[in-house]
Design brief:
- By secondary structure, this protein is mainly alpha-helical.
- The protein is 55% helix and 7% strand.
- The chain has a two-stranded antiparallel ribbon.
- Strand 1 and strand 2 form a beta hairpin.
- The termini are far apart.
- The relative contact order is 0.13.
C-alpha cells in the first residue's frame, strides 16, 4: 500500500466510530457512509467520462483504497438489486476490475 492510498484510507477513517448517519434505508456509521459515497462518486465519474468520451483513468490511489471495501460489499448489494451484476473481465488492471464489479464493461465503448 502506497503513501497516497494510506492517506485515502486514513482520511475516510477519521470520524469517530460512534457517529451515526440517518439514511432512507436505516442508520449506518458515518465512516461506512463515506465509503459508500466515495464508491458511488467514483462509479459515476467513470460513467460521465465514458459517456462524454473523456479520459476514464481514475485515481490509482482511490481505486486501490476502494477495492477491499467494494469487493466485500458490492456482491451483497448485487444480490438485493442495488448494483448491477458484475461484468466478466480478464483484465488484471484494478480499475477495470472495480468497474466490472460495479456492472460496467470497462472494454466496450459505445459508438
Amino acid at each position: 500500500m502506497g503513501r497516497r492510498e494510506r492517506g485515502v484510507r486514513r482520511g475516510l477513517g477519521r470520524g469517530p466510530d460512534h457517529v451515526t448517519v440517518h439514511l432512507s434505508f436505516g442508520d449506518t456509521s458515518a465512516d461506512e457512509y463515506a465509503w459508500q459515497l466515495l464508491l458511488d462518486t467514483i462509479a459515476h465519474t467513470w460513467d460521465l467520462a465514458r459517456g462524454a468520451g473523456l479520459e476514464e483513468r481514475l485515481s490509482r490511489e482511490i481505486v486501490a483504497a476502494l477495492w477491499p471495501y467494494a469487493s466485500e460489499n458490492v456482491p451483497h448489494w448485487q444480490s438485493s438489486g442495488i448494483v448491477a451484476p458484475p461484468v466478466h473481465t480478464h483484465s488484471d488492471d484494478l480499475q477495470d476490475r472495480l468497474i466490472a464489479l460495479l456492472g460496467r464493461d470497462p472494454h466496450v465503448h459505445e459508438q
